[in-house]
């Protein structure tokens, strides 16, 4: 899904709590790319409005055109419109870019983007943000909007009625406005007296969707109306047509941000809400590495171990064909012991895997490992491993490697999968390099004494499983906390070291 482009057309608040500044934060918190056209520059803070400067209408139109001439617009939120000229300019621009009526209620003249109108009239401080004579012009703009979000005072002004004294009166007033203007109305209960702060979506046909909620005890409600309408625009752009969903999700976010407003210290009046509180809490501020970055870093991180492994006498003589048979057999005996334990660790991963896909993958890998071991016995060892009548013992190195995997498997899924990864990744890489003749060109010869063994490394299925394992481990690492990610890396690097020791334990010249 492309990130939606959401445009706010509104006034400014240099203290960042209301207007354009709050809208951009709210759009970002709601999953949109925020854009802003300024209708009025407002010298205000948390205590009140000091002055308003309204740039000439031609400049407003130039800003609007600069956006629409270049950028796909997925939703528009309109806030402070200041005066009749500004309203007229925005109306004309909307008509030009959306066709005539523009609204998604108009059948064939479907809107290219939804318009959410917050009919800002008075700041929370009581200062006017709309010229009184402009209310009629704002009323005329309503049919161009898909949703209008008045507070109780704005609702009264738009219906030319008295301010509703109760929630049921407000709902009835909202229904009258919705029917008369053929527009959805979000009736907001923020200014109600009492312990409740409900909102309700009222459709032109009178259908009401209520969103109940207890009032949050905070004086810091500066910009809640701005933030809510911008948040709805962003969420609607992500899920077009789902008005109730956009309102519900925006309210959940707004309420969380209002509840955390006391953690900000912005000004001495009614302060702003904490737009990113929940996102910061849940997401943190660290730029977590992507799975692709982790893949590259971990692989580079064991470069020295990989180079040492490839330089081992065992690997070089296996590649050039001079490896002693007895030494080869010693390696195979230890490999067989290792595989039995390794298969049990993989089965344990299946047991603790977080998804059915991963559960299945590790179970399949456990099966492949133990079947590989049985095949090794049948084809290569025969009686070689119990010549003395007793099963051969694991070497100190085999024990060390297995103990590392078993210990990691008790420390949770993330560390456990990191520990088993080198056995996939280094083995698959070494095998591919051996088969390709990268280590020694003689390994490619059909006359090579270990040709049959080397051919077992040429295994597309194992290469694909290795990719899957890398995908699961790096995804788990990307999703992990920095501490767990660090522990995963250590488990991975230690296992890579054991992989080198394992190949190095067989004496070879
Ligand atoms: N104290 C509060 N607790 C919970 N929700 C609140 C509170 N105050 C306002 N809201 C919510 O904030 C949103 C804005 O409502 P309000 O009625 O205050 O609009 P407004 O007056 O346009 O906003 P502003 O305060 O920015 O002028 C609504 O969803 C409302 O329910
Ligand atoms: C530019 C601008 N737009 C809207 C508001 C309303 O917000 P509030 O009523 O919370 O002060 C504002 N103060 N400033």
Describe the structure.
- The protein is α/β, with parallel strands linked by helices.
- The chain contains 19 helices and 9 strands.
- The protein has helices at 19-29, 57-68, 84-98, 135-141, 152-159, 167-181, 224-238, 243-259, 277-283, 291-301, 303-311, 313-320, 325-352, 356-381, 396-409, 413-435, 451-455, 460-479, 482-504, and strands at residues 5-11, 33-44, 49-53, 75-78, 115-117, 147-148, 184-188, 199-202, 208-211.
- It has a 9-stranded mixed sheet, with helices on both faces.
- Helix 1 (19-29) runs parallel beside helix 7 (224-238) and helix 16 (413-435) packs antiparallel against helix 18 (460-479).
- The model is unreliable at 100-111 (pLDDT under 50).
- The protein binds adenosine-5'-triphosphate (ATP) and (4-amino-2-methylpyrimidin-5-yl)methyl dihydrogen phosphate.
- The site of (4-amino-2-methylpyrimidin-5-yl)methyl dihydrogen phosphate has 19 residues, from strand 1, strand 2 and helix 7.
